[in-house]
Amino acid sequence: MAAAAATVPSPATSFPSTTRKATVLSLRVSRRFKVAASAAASPGPDPSPAFKSVTAFAPATVANLGPGFDFLGCAVADASLSLGDTVTATLDPSLPPGTVAIAGITSPSRPHLADRLSRDPLRNCAGIAAAAALQALGVRSHAVSLRLAKGLPLGSGLGSSAASAAAAAKAVDALFGSLLYRDDLVLAGLESEKAVSGFHADNIAPAILGGFVLVRSYEPFHLMPLPCPPALRLHFVLVTPDFEAPTSKMRAALPKHVAIKHHVRNSSQAAALVAAVLQGDAGVIGSAMSSDGIVEPTRAPLIPGMVAVKAAALEAGALGCTISGAGPTAVAVIEGAEKGEEIARRMVDAFLSVGKLKATATIAQLDRAGARVISTSSLE
Amino acid sequence: MAAAAATVPSPATSFPSTTRKATVLSLRVSRRFKVAASAAASPGPDPSPAFKSVTAFAPATVANLGPGFDFLGCAVADASLSLGDTVTATLDPSLPPGTVAIAGITSPSRPHLADRLSRDPLRNCAGIAAAAALQALGVRSHAVSLRLAKGLPLGSGLGSSAASAAAAAKAVDALFGSLLYRDDLVLAGLESEKAVSGFHADNIAPAILGGFVLVRSYEPFHLMPLPCPPALRLHFVLVTPDFEAPTSKMRAALPKHVAIKHHVRNSSQAAALVAAVLQGDAGVIGSAMSSDGIVEPTRAPLIPGMVAVKAAALEAGALGCTISGAGPTAVAVIEGAEKGEEIARRMVDAFLSVGKLKATATIAQLDRAGARVISTSSLE
């Protein structure tokens, strides 16, 4: 750990700190944490570590879900947990107390991806979320180094940054005995999202909580988990083309205003989607997801083949299909996994034949657990 | 009955008919009924009466509920059933088969109101809905006369026209053995709403079904009842000022376009409202109802005192407050009836002191039953 820590002396994420940059970050973090019931606001007890090391996994997430633009999302995972990111948080006595360092980044299935991610904890999703979690916990006497294993591609619309942030916040919290409330963890992750991909919680909230989550409001901060009946066997066909669709460009494509009748139509479909999730109606979940008349029509043309991919998915029997997050991943929803492979094949074919893009498909389930600890190392 | 029927020979609502006007109405009705599983589309069996006479009640309704503008509504009723309309449908052999006549209109608590309503069944909410129900049933050999008892004021934002239509459709259906599906009844009532107050189902759907109803879409026609847990003791303080707020004027006040951020905010609050109804969270129901940032801000200033009335309701402990339908009634929501009288008094005071309007208050409960038969007379 010493070598990694040496390359990242970064008092910038420490708490307390005397550098100007750190003060600014600290103030910003404090403002966000004013609604949290944790130790962030005032210097409470300095918590003791519960483990030497904790490894946490956080799943991929599908934000927007069509008419739920900017306020709905759900977590998805495959059986092998390859669809998500893993972070190991380890106590590191070689670092200045209260700080975070990035000790290593790996990306087993995409060798070059790890090189694209910053080792500066202030510029790394996991680092920022870990620092915010440390601050929320009120940790002043210990420091943490992180090892990040990226399972998700970047900029694919599957909540890659949120998965790193969620796993980091969860691992750090567990390292100190899991003292934070659910909302504190989401707010820690939101600090990271804000810095990296924009101030919206529709990825980070389901990445932490699992299942479907409604981000009702930010002031006050109010998340509503939307539990769906256990019998609902919701699956997602996720097809990611080899195409970069930066969130900023996709955001710029959004209409500034919408006609009142489109507002009413999209709102009623979003409300129907929420009701269908709570009532376990896969058919309505699918058709509501497919119904966005505001955002999808402006973004789909920017992703070559997307319109044809959606048509192919529906024709092959998907209950619904839309763009995952800001894209370019297309997400189709099905009940049960039976039709998954055929639908995936048709969607991949459509990306290739119409969009001239290679694409890879994964069949995932709704992930009801969200960020979770997958292993721990005891204190000596 | 003969006298009333003589004044309304009206083949215009008959089925089948040879007049041009009737053909137009019939075609329009048929189009609406194409999704109904009833006898409307093809001439099925001509149903036999089950009773000589049926009396049905339908409750008042609160449409919009803040951010649910044009797609959410709920039914409300007080213990004495004064907050709704009652229709008696009677077989009338003196009328041409397949027709409807208005035999009488009373308004016990508002003597002059009955005079303002048309006796022409084509221009009367109850008449139009009854004719549409007869057609949906496929009744060709019998005719029906209606007696309407108005419990609701007109143009108050409490779904007065929908209550008449719902009670009429329900009474006619029951007269012939309750053959129609729930959606057929709503579509019959929607014919009436379309003619009288606009093509929207957010009053007629809850007036028929009871409880909270989400009007998801019209093509295809899809209603989603939103059952709330039995333990939820939702009450409504309804305060109606002595002020005319015609739906057309209130509609004209609507913005044509909304900013995307307002769209997102309102949609997320509407979705939260739906989730809270299904989960039985009165606090979130109230605060979500109070949160409309699109329609209420444009309409409230047109109702003298409304802004102060809302503030008074919230200050007195209401969980939320908004305009009921297109107004001018203000609706506050509370859990349990305990605070109802105090909140009602404060709201009435605010209408008087700020709006210079006299107002009357009613404390109602969520009406979970919707339109129902309250008495029948057997066939001889």
UniProtKB/TrEMBL annotation, chains A, B:
Name the Gene Ontology biological process terms. Answer: photoperiodism, flowering; response to bacterium; response to fungus; threonine biosynthetic process
Q: Report the top EC class in one word.
A: transferase
Q: Which Pfam families match?
A: GHMP_kinases_C, GHMP_kinases_N
Domain annotation GHMP kinase C-terminal: ranges: 274-349
Q: GO: which molecular function terms? A: ATP binding; homoserine kinase activity
Reaction(s) catalysed by this chain, per the record, are:
L-homoserine + ATP = O-phospho-L-homoserine + ADP + H(+)
- List the keywords (alphabetical): Amino-acid biosynthesis, ATP-binding, Kinase, Nucleotide-binding, Threonine biosynthesis, Transferase
Q: Which EC number(s) are documented for this chain?
A: 2.7.1.39
GHMP kinase N-terminal domain boundaries? 130-211
InterPro entries xrefs: GHMP_kinase_C_dom, GHMP_kinase_C_sf, GHMP_kinase_N_dom, GHMP_knse_ATP-bd_CS, Homoserine_kinase, Ribosomal_Su5_D2-typ_SF, Ribsml_uS5_D2-typ_fold_subgr
Name its pathway: Amino-acid biosynthesis; L-threonine biosynthesis; L-threonine from L-aspartate: step 4/5
According to the UniProt record, one GO cellular component term is:
chloroplast stroma
Under PANTHER family, the record lists: HOMOSERINE KINASE (PTHR20861:SF1), HOMOSERINE/4-DIPHOSPHOCYTIDYL-2-C-METHYL-D-ERYTHRITOL KINASE (PTHR20861)
* Similarity-based family: Belongs to the GHMP kinase family. Homoserine kinase subfamily.
- UniProt name for this protein: Homoserine kinase
Q: Which organism is it from?
A: Brachypodium distachyon
Instruction: Tell me the lineage of the source organism.
Output: Eukaryota, Viridiplantae, Streptophyta, Embryophyta, Tracheophyta
